[in-house]
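quick one, 187 residues, struct below
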Amino acid sequence: MPRLSPGSRFEPLILTTIHDDAVPIPDPHSLVHLQFRRFAGCPICNVHLRSVARRHDEIRSAGVREVVVFHSSAEDMRPHQGDLPFAAVADPERLLYDEFGVTTSRRAVIHPSAWTTPLRPSVYPVVLRGLRNGGSPGPRHGDTVLGLPADFLIAPDGRVVAALYGRHANDQWSVDDLLRLAGQAVP
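---
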């Protein structure tokens, strides 16, 4: 599938979260920040998602609904993402990844930001939380460390407002980036 860009549209989806809740994309009442992450135990992904969770109220106040997708099973995701305050979706067959043009690359792990981030002390509590809950720190069941992240901001009418295809494992929008983009999307 070709990559989506601002102005692109796609068929509406109803996704199922790791807690069996239905999530419509687009959401008729708010912007959707659709994030594609790597494997469930990915330290980079989980530290990033904790920063999103800490500012979730601020994100909701800006009219944005968070949805995160991993190419892991729901079983593998629950120990790591089960307590997030927003929707987490399992896509172990990578069907959504294919539909949105999100790929893998050896470059995912060779960028200095990708291999130094897991060494930061702030990562350890996040990784330990997942391990205490029974999760694995590494890829499992066909997951790969070579996955690339992607971010999409989707308008209620299904139009892609903004898109970022990560060049390496730690290339994603910050919360400040998301809030800026959401502010620009509001008429």
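The chain has one domain: 13-180.
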